[in-house]
Amino acid sequence: MYLHANAKLGLAGRLALVRAIEGGISLREAAAAFSVSPATAHRWWHRWLDGGRQASALLDRSSRPRRSPRLLAVERQERICDCRRQTGWGPRLVAGATGFAHSTVWKVLRRHGLSRRLAAVKEPANRYEWPCPGDLLHMDTSRYARFLRPGHRVTGDRSQRSRRWMRPEARVGYDYAHAIVDDHSRLAYVELHDDERAETVTAFVERALAFFAEHGIVAKRLMTDNGFSYVKNRSLRELLAQRDIRHLTTQPYRPRTNGKVERFHQTMAREWAYGLSYRSHRHRNNALPHWLHNYNHRRPHSSLGDRPPISRVHNVRG
């Protein structure tokens, strides 16, 4: 039940008030007993009588006027709404196109539920999982800025002296985290490198395949995005052909196609890169093997029933 913010009595209090008046006391005595003005007691008593002595008569009424002589005509409101639907413009541009005041246009759009754009229709989740480890490996790269000392996020110092890291001579580049995640088990392999050139990518993939082979996982497919170092990499193509691995690429501008490794990069950034405070990027990089081992062997994974990825590897007992 809606009650006015300044209402002195709730529904139970109003009902008790009119019951007391029906019991024989005067309006003034009832008002004093319930700590309201005589005018308030008079209003609720007569609403009670006019409403057939029903509790619904004691509910708050809308404060909206019954008539609005200055309300814009219906056909003019339709002009404003049609302009909004066809162009998607805001109130100011619609006001300029239709000739009405900005405040009038805003009120009309709000009244018709058009003051905000409709949310984009989300595509249904396309969840899939290959039946065996190695059926599909997801690969992607993420970069992290290097730093020689903690920044204001850790120290809280935002003075000019603390902004020396922004000078060109203080910039020390980026670390590129190359990652491969198995589709079925979510077992991950990560290396940090200075770049993402073709020869770096090929050497990383070769070591990653050896890592998965140690766990009894023989790769059959490798999915990457359409990056130059992936699709134009002759050495990678020769390596995959030698191992009889099919190279799949994602649909352009659709990172969700490679969603498992994209989600892994989010987890790695939140828990490893930005989850702790490091003295420098070297300390951060030294912590990666420990975090990755915990991710693969101990950390519960929600999509695996709160079990670690190693639980889905065939030779988990060695």
List keywords for this structure.
elongated; alpha/beta; five-stranded mixed sheet; 318 residues; 12 helices
Protein described:
The protein has helices at residues 11-22, 27-33, 38-50, 74-87, 91-98, 102-111, 152-155, 198-214, 228-231, 234-242, 259-273, 281-297; strands spanning 137-145, 174-182, 188-193, 221-224, 246-249. By secondary structure, it is an alpha/beta fold. A five-stranded mixed beta sheet has the order 3-2-1-4-5, sandwiched between helices. Helix 1 crosses helix 3 and helix 4 crosses helix 5 (91-98). The longest helix is centred in the middle third of the chain and has 17 residues, at 198-214. It is elongated, with a radius of gyration of 34 Å. It starts with 10 loop residues before the first helix and ends in a 21-residue tail after the last helix. The model has no long low-confidence stretch (mean pLDDT 89).
